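User: Quick sanity check before I run a bigger batch. Here is a single chain. Can you write out its predicted 3D structure?
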Amino acid sequence: MLLSVSLILGMMCSSGMAQEKGIWRASSTTAKSITGDLAFWNEKLVINFTPFVFAQIRTLEGPEVTALFNGEGGADGVGNLYRLNTIPAAKAFLHKNTLCGHDDTQWFATYVVGKSMQLAFFSGAKMPVFTPEAIADSTNLCGTFSYVR
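Assistant: Done. Predicted structure follows.
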């Protein structure tokens, strides 16, 4: 009985990020110039062959996805918020670009619909807020990136 409860809980926890798992090709100009292609494996985000550990915090609600990704959220996809084990500000990726300028990257959010994913990175220790007002006034939103399978 205990084993079956553990298996169910494990499946529920891992199913939250199931839509992100795998390799994603950079499709936006920003993604192509900073991260390039990336991959999600277990609890690791791999950018430019460097793995970064993360933990899923929660699923994003429809209005939060809409606020963050400029009205492109909806019932067809799934959005999630993740906490990173910090990507240092000094970590350079493609073309010597960094994710958040002079700030450490500590959060990211995803929105996956079919074979496309949008991803936003955030700096700062505080959990990002996803309302239109908060996003418009945000100083910790590093950038948004688009990927395809």
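DSSP finds four helices and eight strands in the chain.

User: Great, the batch can go ahead then.
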